[in-house]
Structures are given as C-alpha cells and as structure tokens.
User: Which sequence fits this backbone?
C-alpha cells in the first residue's frame, strides 16, 4: 500500500477511496471518490478528476472544499484501517497525485 493507490473500502457499502498516507497507529488517511458536482464550484472548492485510467469502473472526483470563515468544509477526508480495505483498484499517475497534493495544500491554508 502506498500514497496515491485507489482502494475499495468496506463501510456500509463498498466505496472507492484514494490513500493519502501510509498506515500508522492512527490508521490511514484516505479521500472518498465522489460524483462530480455538476456545477461550477470555483471559489468554493477544487475537484480532481479520477476514473478508468486510475482503476475505477466510473468517472468521479476527489473534491476539496476551500476553507471559508464561519464554515467547516467537508472534504471527504477520513481515516480507515487495514482491515477496512477490500481490494486494490488501481493507482493515480504521478501527475494526478501532484494535482491532489496541490489541492491538499490549498485546503490547508
């Protein structure tokens, strides 16, 4: 397992997530692949497209909500454990992983 891999994770249903950290005692930081917003979210967030080239059977996005005063953004980040991982689906290309890292820097401001 390494940063940038796409894994199916067992929650209430089988969902795709991208690994953002290595496993440690507190778990593995991951981000859920979600459907594109379908509207312009400029100024509110950033979406990084993922899909078949990354090992998924559908097109989706990693959505990063930008911080705003008085608002706690949901960025679909969560922590899972090794036992939650079902099956490796694929991996992001180095260029795509770079897009994700750029988006993470934006939301960390």
Assistant:
């Amino acid at each position: 397992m390494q940063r940038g891999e796409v894994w199916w994770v067992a929650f209430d249903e089988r969902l795709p997530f991208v690994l953002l950290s290595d496993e440690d005692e507190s778990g593995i930081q991951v981000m859920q692949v979600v459907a594109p917003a379908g509207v312009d979210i400029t100024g509110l967030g950033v979406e990084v497209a993922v899909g078949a080239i990354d090992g998924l059977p559908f097109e989706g996005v990693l959505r990063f909500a930008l911080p705003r005063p008085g608002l706690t953004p949901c960025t679909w980040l969560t922590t899972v454990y090794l036992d939650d991982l079902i099956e490796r689906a694929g991996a992001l290309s180095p260029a795509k992983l770079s897009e994700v890292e750029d988006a993470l820097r934006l939301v960390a401001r």
